[in-house]
Design goal:
It contains 6 helices and 2 strands; from the N terminus they run H-H-H-E-E-H-H-H. It is mainly α. The chain has a two-stranded antiparallel ribbon with strand order 1-2. The N and C termini lie far apart (about 40 Å). The mean pLDDT is about 90.
Length: about 150
């Protein structure tokens, strides 16, 4: 989820109620703020918000049902998750491919921090910061090409 997401805000009450029922359902319920954990959004290949996953014994399934408390509980109690195709092996959050994707998301956050440092702390003009990154990209490309 993300704090600014209207769909996430709309679902928040149902999700919190679902979390309160988690012990009775025999599950653990959590939520991750993708603005604070960009690596996880990359690892889970989050393209829409909110995104819900069911994980059981290392097998991940994406929940695409209704976002009401009753439907979330029914998904667990009626074991509807068994009928859902698991996430493909290469797209699984535990795969090497998704570890790499998480790394790219962390790298983009690092670049954003450098940009904010250059423009905010050092007072470098935004376009000069962009030029620095363009030049660095070209130089890294040339070095890797050699």
């Amino acid at each position: 989820y993300a704090p600014w997401c209207p769909a996430c805000q709309q679902m928040e009450v149902a999700w919190e109620s679902f979390a309160k029922e988690s012990e009775r359902l025999g599950i653990t319920v959590g939520k991750v703020d993708v603005t604070q954990e960009p690596g996880l959004s990359g690892r889970f290949f989050v393209t829409t918000l909110p995104t819900i996953y069911h994980a059981n014994d290392g097998v991940f399934r994406r929940y695409r049902g209704s976002r009401t408390l009753e439907d979330l509980q029914g998904y667990i109690l009626e074991r509807k998750w068994e009928a859902v195709e698991p996430v493909a092996g290469w797209k699984s959050p535990s795969s090497i491919m998704m570890h790499g994707m998480a790394g790219l998301f962390h790298f983009s956050g690092w670049i954003r921090q450098i940009h904010n440092y250059l423009t905010g702390t050092l007072g470098v003009h935004v376009w000069i910061s962009y030029a620095i990154f363009i030049l660095a990209t070209l130089l890294i490309g040339l070095l890797l090409g050699l």
